[in-house]
Amino acid sequence: MGEKNCGKELKDKLLFKRKNAWTEFNENEKNIAFEMCEGYKAFLDKAKTEREFTNEAELLAIAHGFKSFDEIVKSKMKITDGMKLYQANRGKSVILCVVGKEPLENGINILGAHIDSPRLDLKQNPVYEDNEIVFLKTHYYGGIKKYQWVTIPLALHGVVIKTDGTVVNVKLGEDDNDMVFTITDLLPHIAVDQMKKNMSEAITGEDLNIIFGSIPFDDEIDERVKLNVLQLLNAKYGITEEDFTSAELEIVPAFKARDVGFDRSMVGAYGQDDRVCAYTSLKAILDVDNTDKTALCILIDKEEIGSVGNTSAQSAFLEGFISNLLILSGEGKDELIKSQCLLNSRMLSADVNAAVDPNYGDVQDKKNAVYIGKGIAIQKYTGSMGKLGANDSNPEFVAEFRKILNENRIPWQAGEFGKVDLGGGSTIAKFAANLGIDVIDCGVPVLSMHSPFEITSKIDIYATYNAYKSFLLY
Questions:
Q1: Each residue of 459-468: pLDDT tens digit?
Q2: What is the third-level CATH fold of 119-253?
Protein backbone atom coordinates (compact mmCIF):
# COMPACT_ATOMS: atom_id res chain seq x y z
CA MET A 1 0.00 0.00 0.00
CA GLY A 2 2.85 2.34 0.87
CA GLU A 3 4.49 1.71 -2.52
CA LYS A 4 1.22 2.54 -4.30
CA ASN A 5 0.90 5.82 -2.42
CA CYS A 6 4.52 6.58 -3.18
CA GLY A 7 3.89 5.92 -6.88
CA LYS A 8 0.87 8.21 -6.89
CA GLU A 9 2.84 10.99 -5.23
CA LEU A 10 5.65 10.54 -7.74
CA LYS A 11 3.15 10.56 -10.61
CA ASP A 12 1.55 13.77 -9.34
CA LYS A 13 4.98 15.35 -9.00
CA LEU A 14 6.51 14.31 -12.33
CA LEU A 15 3.68 13.93 -14.86
CA PHE A 16 1.87 16.85 -16.51
CA LYS A 17 -1.84 16.31 -16.88
CA ARG A 18 -4.32 18.64 -18.53
CA LYS A 19 -7.00 19.53 -16.02
CA ASN A 20 -10.60 20.40 -16.70
CA ALA A 21 -10.59 24.15 -16.16
CA TRP A 22 -14.10 24.10 -14.68
CA THR A 23 -12.71 22.20 -11.67
CA GLU A 24 -9.84 24.66 -11.18
CA PHE A 25 -12.01 27.69 -10.38
CA ASN A 26 -14.36 28.16 -7.43
CA GLU A 27 -18.05 28.97 -7.77
CA ASN A 28 -17.50 32.71 -7.50
CA GLU A 29 -14.89 32.62 -10.28
CA LYS A 30 -17.22 30.56 -12.47
CA ASN A 31 -19.95 33.15 -11.97
CA ILE A 32 -17.50 35.88 -12.96
CA ALA A 33 -16.63 33.87 -16.09
CA PHE A 34 -20.30 33.63 -17.08
CA GLU A 35 -20.84 37.35 -16.43
CA MET A 36 -17.74 38.28 -18.44
CA CYS A 37 -18.97 36.24 -21.39
CA GLU A 38 -22.25 38.17 -21.45
CA GLY A 39 -20.17 41.27 -22.18
CA TYR A 40 -18.13 39.31 -24.69
CA LYS A 41 -21.20 38.15 -26.62
CA ALA A 42 -22.61 41.68 -26.72
CA PHE A 43 -19.26 42.96 -27.99
CA LEU A 44 -19.15 40.32 -30.74
CA ASP A 45 -22.57 41.40 -31.97
CA LYS A 46 -21.38 45.02 -32.23
CA ALA A 47 -17.96 44.27 -33.76
CA LYS A 48 -18.22 41.86 -36.68
CA THR A 49 -15.61 43.67 -38.78
CA GLU A 50 -12.17 45.08 -38.05
CA ARG A 51 -13.47 48.64 -38.43
CA GLU A 52 -16.26 48.02 -35.93
CA PHE A 53 -13.86 46.38 -33.49
CA THR A 54 -11.45 49.32 -33.70
CA ASN A 55 -14.29 51.79 -33.16
CA GLU A 56 -15.61 49.91 -30.13
CA ALA A 57 -12.08 49.60 -28.71
CA GLU A 58 -11.56 53.37 -29.05
CA LEU A 59 -14.84 54.10 -27.28
CA LEU A 60 -13.94 51.77 -24.41
CA ALA A 61 -10.42 53.21 -24.21
CA ILE A 62 -11.77 56.76 -23.88
CA ALA A 63 -14.28 55.60 -21.26
CA HIS A 64 -11.39 54.08 -19.26
CA GLY A 65 -9.34 57.28 -19.29
CA PHE A 66 -7.05 56.62 -22.28
CA LYS A 67 -5.88 59.72 -24.16
CA SER A 68 -5.31 60.10 -27.89
CA PHE A 69 -1.65 59.47 -28.67
CA ASP A 70 -2.05 61.44 -31.92
CA GLU A 71 -2.94 64.52 -29.91
CA ILE A 72 -0.02 63.97 -27.54
CA VAL A 73 2.41 63.57 -30.47
CA LYS A 74 1.02 66.75 -32.04
CA SER A 75 1.47 68.75 -28.84
CA LYS A 76 4.80 67.03 -28.01
CA MET A 77 3.60 66.51 -24.45
CA LYS A 78 6.04 64.59 -22.23
CA ILE A 79 5.04 60.99 -21.50
CA THR A 80 5.12 60.02 -17.82
CA ASP A 81 4.38 56.80 -15.96
CA GLY A 82 0.74 56.02 -15.35
CA MET A 83 -0.42 57.66 -18.58
CA LYS A 84 -2.93 55.72 -20.66
CA LEU A 85 -2.67 56.17 -24.43
CA TYR A 86 -4.41 54.89 -27.53
CA GLN A 87 -3.80 55.28 -31.25
CA ALA A 88 -5.88 54.00 -34.16
CA ASN A 89 -4.46 53.27 -37.59
CA ARG A 90 -6.82 54.06 -40.48
CA GLY A 91 -9.77 52.82 -38.45
CA LYS A 92 -8.68 49.18 -38.83
CA SER A 93 -6.11 48.59 -36.10
CA VAL A 94 -5.45 50.14 -32.71
CA ILE A 95 -2.84 50.28 -29.94
CA LEU A 96 -3.61 50.82 -26.25
CA CYS A 97 -0.76 51.51 -23.83
CA VAL A 98 -0.34 52.00 -20.08
CA VAL A 99 3.03 53.62 -19.36
CA GLY A 100 4.96 51.89 -16.57
CA LYS A 101 7.39 53.09 -13.93
CA GLU A 102 10.48 51.46 -15.45
CA PRO A 103 12.40 52.99 -18.38
CA LEU A 104 11.10 51.82 -21.75
CA GLU A 105 14.61 50.58 -22.51
CA ASN A 106 13.90 47.78 -20.03
CA GLY A 107 11.25 46.45 -22.41
CA ILE A 108 7.48 46.42 -22.83
CA ASN A 109 4.94 43.67 -22.09
CA ILE A 110 2.85 43.37 -25.25
CA LEU A 111 -0.40 41.63 -26.15
CA GLY A 112 -1.02 41.26 -29.88
CA ALA A 113 -4.20 39.93 -31.50
CA HIS A 114 -5.82 40.21 -34.91
CA ILE A 115 -9.33 41.56 -35.38
CA ASP A 116 -10.07 40.45 -38.94
CA SER A 117 -11.92 37.20 -39.65
CA PRO A 118 -12.73 35.08 -42.72
CA ARG A 119 -15.66 36.55 -44.63
CA LEU A 120 -16.94 37.53 -48.08
CA ASP A 121 -15.96 40.91 -49.52
CA LEU A 122 -17.90 42.61 -52.32
CA LYS A 123 -16.07 42.89 -55.61
CA GLN A 124 -15.37 46.35 -57.04
CA ASN A 125 -18.25 46.03 -59.53
CA PRO A 126 -20.58 43.81 -57.53
CA VAL A 127 -24.13 44.59 -58.69
CA TYR A 128 -25.62 42.58 -61.57
CA GLU A 129 -28.99 41.30 -62.72
CA ASP A 130 -29.81 37.81 -63.98
CA ASN A 131 -33.32 36.51 -64.73
CA GLU A 132 -34.74 39.61 -63.08
CA ILE A 133 -32.98 38.92 -59.78
CA VAL A 134 -30.24 41.26 -58.55
CA PHE A 135 -27.09 39.73 -57.10
CA LEU A 136 -23.89 41.00 -55.50
CA LYS A 137 -20.63 39.38 -56.58
CA THR A 138 -18.16 38.55 -53.81
CA HIS A 139 -14.53 37.61 -53.31
CA TYR A 140 -13.91 35.51 -50.23
CA TYR A 141 -11.38 36.76 -47.67
CA GLY A 142 -9.20 34.32 -45.74
CA GLY A 143 -9.55 30.57 -45.47
CA ILE A 144 -13.16 29.43 -45.72
CA LYS A 145 -15.05 26.30 -46.63
CA LYS A 146 -17.23 27.84 -49.32
CA TYR A 147 -20.12 25.44 -48.91
CA GLN A 148 -20.62 26.66 -45.31
CA TRP A 149 -21.64 30.11 -46.57
CA VAL A 150 -24.64 29.14 -48.67
CA THR A 151 -28.29 29.14 -47.46
CA ILE A 152 -27.57 31.02 -44.23
CA PRO A 153 -28.76 34.56 -43.35
CA LEU A 154 -26.09 37.13 -44.16
CA ALA A 155 -25.56 40.77 -43.25
CA LEU A 156 -23.78 43.61 -45.07
CA HIS A 157 -21.32 45.75 -43.09
CA GLY A 158 -18.81 48.38 -44.09
CA VAL A 159 -18.16 51.81 -45.49
CA VAL A 160 -18.56 53.60 -48.81
CA ILE A 161 -16.18 56.52 -49.39
CA LYS A 162 -17.47 59.10 -51.85
CA THR A 163 -15.16 61.26 -53.98
CA ASP A 164 -15.87 64.32 -51.82
CA GLY A 165 -14.53 62.40 -48.79
CA THR A 166 -17.94 61.62 -47.31
CA VAL A 167 -17.95 58.36 -45.33
CA VAL A 168 -21.16 56.37 -45.61
CA ASN A 169 -21.53 53.69 -42.93
CA VAL A 170 -23.53 50.61 -43.91
CA LYS A 171 -24.92 47.95 -41.59
CA LEU A 172 -27.82 45.88 -42.90
CA GLY A 173 -29.14 42.59 -41.58
CA GLU A 174 -28.45 42.92 -37.84
CA ASP A 175 -31.60 44.59 -36.52
CA ASP A 176 -34.58 42.28 -36.01
CA ASN A 177 -36.56 44.42 -38.47
CA ASP A 178 -33.80 44.43 -41.10
CA MET A 179 -33.79 42.43 -44.28
CA VAL A 180 -31.09 39.77 -44.61
CA PHE A 181 -29.25 38.38 -47.62
CA THR A 182 -28.27 34.87 -48.67
CA ILE A 183 -26.55 32.66 -51.24
CA THR A 184 -28.70 30.00 -52.87
CA ASP A 185 -27.94 26.30 -53.37
CA LEU A 186 -29.44 23.44 -55.37
CA LEU A 187 -32.07 21.15 -53.90
CA PRO A 188 -30.85 17.53 -53.52
CA HIS A 189 -33.30 16.23 -56.16
CA ILE A 190 -31.48 17.93 -59.05
CA ALA A 191 -28.01 18.19 -57.55
CA VAL A 192 -26.77 14.78 -58.64
CA ASP A 193 -23.78 16.14 -60.57
CA GLN A 194 -22.94 18.72 -57.89
CA MET A 195 -22.93 16.09 -55.15
CA LYS A 196 -20.44 13.97 -57.08
CA LYS A 197 -17.85 16.75 -56.81
CA ASN A 198 -15.27 17.22 -54.07
CA MET A 199 -16.41 19.50 -51.25
CA SER A 200 -13.93 22.14 -52.39
CA GLU A 201 -15.36 22.10 -55.92
CA ALA A 202 -19.11 21.80 -55.34
CA ILE A 203 -19.35 25.51 -54.53
CA THR A 204 -16.82 27.73 -56.30
CA GLY A 205 -15.69 31.25 -55.45
CA GLU A 206 -17.68 32.60 -58.40
CA ASP A 207 -20.80 30.85 -57.09
CA LEU A 208 -20.84 32.94 -53.91
CA ASN A 209 -23.27 35.53 -55.24
CA ILE A 210 -25.61 37.28 -52.81
CA ILE A 211 -29.32 37.66 -53.58
CA PHE A 212 -30.03 41.38 -53.21
CA GLY A 213 -33.45 42.17 -54.75
CA SER A 214 -36.17 41.25 -57.25
CA ILE A 215 -38.65 44.13 -57.72
CA PRO A 216 -38.36 45.86 -61.14
CA PHE A 217 -38.33 49.60 -61.80
CA ASP A 218 -41.68 50.70 -63.21
CA ASP A 219 -40.47 51.22 -66.78
CA GLU A 220 -39.72 48.92 -69.71
CA ILE A 221 -35.92 49.23 -69.77
CA ASP A 222 -32.96 46.89 -69.54
CA GLU A 223 -31.80 45.84 -66.04
CA ARG A 224 -34.83 47.41 -64.46
CA VAL A 225 -34.52 45.33 -61.26
CA LYS A 226 -30.92 46.48 -60.87
CA LEU A 227 -32.03 50.07 -61.46
CA ASN A 228 -34.71 49.78 -58.80
CA VAL A 229 -32.22 48.39 -56.23
CA LEU A 230 -29.72 51.15 -57.04
CA GLN A 231 -32.51 53.71 -56.68
CA LEU A 232 -33.30 52.35 -53.20
CA LEU A 233 -29.61 52.45 -52.24
CA ASN A 234 -29.34 56.02 -53.49
CA ALA A 235 -32.40 57.06 -51.53
CA LYS A 236 -31.06 55.50 -48.30
CA TYR A 237 -27.34 56.22 -48.59
CA GLY A 238 -26.93 58.77 -51.40
CA ILE A 239 -24.58 56.45 -53.32
CA THR A 240 -24.35 55.43 -56.98
CA GLU A 241 -22.98 52.30 -58.62
CA GLU A 242 -19.62 54.01 -59.19
CA ASP A 243 -19.23 54.49 -55.43
CA PHE A 244 -18.79 50.72 -54.95
CA THR A 245 -15.30 51.18 -56.42
CA SER A 246 -14.17 53.00 -53.26
CA ALA A 247 -16.15 50.90 -50.80
CA GLU A 248 -15.10 48.36 -48.19
CA LEU A 249 -18.20 46.21 -47.81
CA GLU A 250 -18.13 42.85 -46.06
CA ILE A 251 -20.64 40.02 -45.96
CA VAL A 252 -20.85 38.35 -42.53
CA PRO A 253 -23.32 35.95 -40.89
CA ALA A 254 -26.44 37.74 -39.68
CA PHE A 255 -26.97 35.67 -36.54
CA LYS A 256 -26.00 36.81 -33.05
CA ALA A 257 -23.64 35.28 -30.49
CA ARG A 258 -25.44 32.62 -28.45
CA ASP A 259 -24.90 30.31 -25.50
CA VAL A 260 -24.24 26.73 -26.60
CA GLY A 261 -25.04 23.62 -24.56
CA PHE A 262 -27.79 22.88 -22.07
CA ASP A 263 -25.41 24.05 -19.33
CA ARG A 264 -24.65 27.26 -21.27
CA SER A 265 -20.95 26.48 -20.94
CA MET A 266 -19.94 27.57 -24.43
CA VAL A 267 -20.23 30.54 -26.77
CA GLY A 268 -21.23 30.11 -30.40
CA ALA A 269 -20.61 33.05 -32.73
CA TYR A 270 -19.06 34.28 -35.95
CA GLY A 271 -15.54 35.71 -35.85
CA GLN A 272 -14.21 34.22 -32.61
CA ASP A 273 -10.97 33.64 -34.51
CA ASP A 274 -9.47 35.88 -33.36
CA ARG A 275 -11.87 38.25 -31.63
CA VAL A 276 -12.05 35.99 -28.59
CA CYS A 277 -8.35 36.70 -27.96
CA ALA A 278 -8.65 40.31 -29.11
CA TYR A 279 -11.51 40.93 -26.67
CA THR A 280 -9.70 39.30 -23.73
CA SER A 281 -6.56 41.28 -24.63
CA LEU A 282 -8.56 44.50 -24.80
CA LYS A 283 -10.25 43.78 -21.47
CA ALA A 284 -6.89 42.95 -19.90
CA ILE A 285 -5.25 46.26 -20.91
CA LEU A 286 -8.36 48.23 -19.88
CA ASP A 287 -8.15 46.66 -16.42
CA VAL A 288 -4.49 47.68 -15.90
CA ASP A 289 -3.95 50.86 -13.89
CA ASN A 290 -0.45 50.79 -12.43
CA THR A 291 2.41 48.67 -13.66
CA ASP A 292 6.19 48.55 -13.40
CA LYS A 293 6.81 47.68 -17.04
CA THR A 294 4.93 49.52 -19.74
CA ALA A 295 1.94 47.44 -20.91
CA LEU A 296 0.78 47.57 -24.53
CA CYS A 297 -1.98 45.91 -26.54
CA ILE A 298 -1.99 45.98 -30.33
CA LEU A 299 -5.13 44.88 -32.18
CA ILE A 300 -4.27 44.38 -35.81
CA ASP A 301 -5.81 43.78 -39.23
CA LYS A 302 -5.11 41.50 -42.22
CA GLU A 303 -3.77 38.41 -40.41
CA GLU A 304 -6.12 36.11 -42.29
CA ILE A 305 -4.49 37.05 -45.62
CA GLY A 306 -0.85 36.99 -44.54
CA SER A 307 -0.50 40.17 -42.45
CA VAL A 308 0.12 42.38 -45.48
CA GLY A 309 -0.70 46.07 -45.84
CA ASN A 310 -0.36 49.21 -43.75
CA THR A 311 -2.84 48.10 -41.06
CA SER A 312 -1.22 44.70 -40.56
CA ALA A 313 1.41 43.20 -38.27
CA GLN A 314 4.01 43.71 -40.99
CA SER A 315 3.35 47.44 -41.10
CA ALA A 316 5.40 50.02 -39.19
CA PHE A 317 2.51 50.74 -36.81
CA LEU A 318 3.92 49.08 -33.67
CA GLU A 319 7.52 50.11 -34.26
CA GLY A 320 6.48 53.69 -35.00
CA PHE A 321 4.39 53.87 -31.84
CA ILE A 322 7.31 52.65 -29.73
CA SER A 323 9.71 55.09 -31.41
CA ASN A 324 7.43 58.03 -30.63
CA LEU A 325 6.89 56.74 -27.10
CA LEU A 326 10.65 56.70 -26.51
CA ILE A 327 11.05 60.24 -27.84
CA LEU A 328 8.18 61.72 -25.83
CA SER A 329 9.23 59.93 -22.65
CA GLY A 330 12.60 61.64 -22.86
CA GLU A 331 14.57 58.46 -23.56
CA GLY A 332 15.51 59.81 -26.98
CA LYS A 333 15.37 58.78 -30.62
CA ASP A 334 18.65 56.86 -30.60
CA GLU A 335 18.24 53.62 -32.57
CA LEU A 336 20.34 51.84 -29.92
CA ILE A 337 17.75 52.69 -27.26
CA LYS A 338 14.89 51.47 -29.47
CA SER A 339 16.81 48.31 -30.28
CA GLN A 340 17.33 47.59 -26.57
CA CYS A 341 13.68 48.30 -25.86
CA LEU A 342 12.58 45.78 -28.50
CA LEU A 343 15.13 43.15 -27.45
CA ASN A 344 13.96 43.41 -23.84
CA SER A 345 10.28 43.30 -24.75
CA ARG A 346 8.04 40.26 -24.47
CA MET A 347 4.85 39.55 -26.34
CA LEU A 348 1.95 37.15 -26.21
CA SER A 349 0.68 36.54 -29.71
CA ALA A 350 -2.93 36.22 -28.58
CA ASP A 351 -4.39 33.82 -31.10
CA VAL A 352 -6.68 30.82 -31.05
CA ASN A 353 -5.82 27.17 -31.54
CA ALA A 354 -7.88 24.36 -33.07
CA ALA A 355 -9.40 22.22 -30.32
CA VAL A 356 -9.73 18.46 -30.73
CA ASP A 357 -13.14 17.66 -32.22
CA PRO A 358 -14.13 14.09 -31.27
CA ASN A 359 -16.05 13.85 -34.56
CA TYR A 360 -12.79 14.36 -36.47
CA GLY A 361 -10.17 13.10 -34.05
CA ASP A 362 -7.87 11.53 -36.63
CA VAL A 363 -6.48 14.91 -37.83
CA GLN A 364 -4.84 15.65 -34.47
CA ASP A 365 -1.94 14.15 -32.55
CA LYS A 366 -3.98 13.93 -29.36
CA LYS A 367 -0.91 13.90 -27.14
CA ASN A 368 0.11 17.24 -28.65
CA ALA A 369 -3.27 18.85 -29.26
CA VAL A 370 -5.43 21.20 -27.22
CA TYR A 371 -8.90 20.63 -25.85
CA ILE A 372 -11.92 22.79 -25.19
CA GLY A 373 -12.51 23.44 -21.49
CA LYS A 374 -8.93 22.82 -20.37
CA GLY A 375 -7.68 26.38 -20.13
CA ILE A 376 -5.53 28.68 -22.24
CA ALA A 377 -3.60 26.92 -25.03
CA ILE A 378 0.13 27.56 -25.43
CA GLN A 379 1.64 27.00 -28.87
CA LYS A 380 5.43 27.13 -28.86
CA TYR A 381 5.53 27.11 -32.65
CA THR A 382 3.06 27.33 -35.51
CA GLY A 383 3.75 26.99 -39.23
CA SER A 384 3.09 24.05 -41.52
CA MET A 385 4.91 20.84 -42.43
CA GLY A 386 8.50 21.49 -41.28
CA LYS A 387 7.51 24.53 -39.14
CA LEU A 388 7.44 26.67 -42.30
CA GLY A 389 6.40 30.23 -41.54
CA ALA A 390 6.63 29.69 -37.80
CA ASN A 391 7.84 31.63 -34.84
CA ASP A 392 9.51 29.00 -32.64
CA SER A 393 9.54 30.53 -29.17
CA ASN A 394 12.70 30.52 -27.11
CA PRO A 395 12.39 28.03 -24.21
CA GLU A 396 13.57 30.65 -21.72
CA PHE A 397 10.48 32.74 -22.47
CA VAL A 398 8.21 29.68 -22.49
CA ALA A 399 9.47 28.82 -19.00
CA GLU A 400 8.89 32.38 -17.84
CA PHE A 401 5.32 32.32 -19.12
CA ARG A 402 4.69 28.94 -17.49
CA LYS A 403 5.80 30.47 -14.22
CA ILE A 404 3.32 33.32 -14.61
CA LEU A 405 0.48 30.87 -15.28
CA ASN A 406 1.36 28.54 -12.41
CA GLU A 407 1.88 31.34 -9.89
CA ASN A 408 -1.52 32.80 -10.77
CA ARG A 409 -3.29 29.43 -10.69
CA ILE A 410 -4.36 29.66 -14.33
CA PRO A 411 -5.22 26.34 -16.06
CA TRP A 412 -3.21 25.85 -19.25
CA GLN A 413 -2.29 23.30 -21.87
CA ALA A 414 0.23 23.07 -24.68
CA GLY A 415 -0.24 21.69 -28.18
CA GLU A 416 0.06 22.02 -31.92
CA PHE A 417 -2.40 22.85 -34.66
CA GLY A 418 -2.80 19.37 -36.13
CA LYS A 419 -0.81 16.38 -37.34
CA VAL A 420 2.54 17.36 -38.84
CA ASP A 421 1.83 16.59 -42.51
CA LEU A 422 -1.81 17.69 -42.62
CA GLY A 423 -1.31 21.43 -42.99
CA GLY A 424 -1.02 24.14 -40.37
CA GLY A 425 -0.98 27.90 -40.22
CA SER A 426 0.84 30.92 -38.90
CA THR A 427 0.09 33.96 -36.74
CA ILE A 428 1.41 37.48 -36.20
CA ALA A 429 4.09 36.12 -33.84
CA LYS A 430 6.86 35.89 -36.43
CA PHE A 431 6.55 39.56 -37.38
CA ALA A 432 7.04 40.72 -33.80
CA ALA A 433 9.88 38.21 -33.43
CA ASN A 434 11.56 39.80 -36.47
CA LEU A 435 11.82 43.00 -34.41
CA GLY A 436 13.75 41.13 -31.74
CA ILE A 437 10.82 40.65 -29.35
CA ASP A 438 10.38 37.38 -27.42
CA VAL A 439 7.01 35.97 -28.52
CA ILE A 440 4.81 32.98 -27.82
CA ASP A 441 1.38 32.10 -29.24
CA CYS A 442 -1.36 31.46 -26.72
CA GLY A 443 -5.11 31.73 -26.71
CA VAL A 444 -8.51 30.08 -26.58
CA PRO A 445 -9.13 26.64 -28.16
CA VAL A 446 -11.88 26.77 -30.80
CA LEU A 447 -14.18 24.19 -32.39
CA SER A 448 -15.38 24.70 -35.99
CA MET A 449 -12.70 27.33 -36.57
CA HIS A 450 -13.11 29.48 -39.71
CA SER A 451 -16.76 28.49 -40.01
CA PRO A 452 -19.62 31.02 -39.79
CA PHE A 453 -20.38 29.72 -36.25
CA GLU A 454 -17.34 28.97 -34.09
CA ILE A 455 -17.48 27.44 -30.60
CA THR A 456 -15.45 28.36 -27.51
CA SER A 457 -15.65 27.47 -23.82
CA LYS A 458 -16.54 30.24 -21.36
CA ILE A 459 -14.04 28.92 -18.82
CA ASP A 460 -11.24 29.02 -21.41
CA ILE A 461 -12.17 32.63 -22.20
CA TYR A 462 -11.96 33.51 -18.50
CA ALA A 463 -8.66 31.67 -18.06
CA THR A 464 -7.23 33.46 -21.09
CA TYR A 465 -8.25 36.87 -19.79
CA ASN A 466 -6.56 36.10 -16.47
CA ALA A 467 -3.42 34.92 -18.25
CA TYR A 468 -3.19 38.08 -20.36
CA LYS A 469 -3.73 40.42 -17.43
CA SER A 470 -1.22 38.53 -15.26
CA PHE A 471 1.35 38.80 -18.06
CA LEU A 472 0.85 42.54 -18.46
CA LEU A 473 1.39 43.04 -14.74
CA TYR A 474 4.38 40.67 -14.40
A1: 999 999 999 9
A2: Aminopeptidase i, Domain 2 (2.30.250)
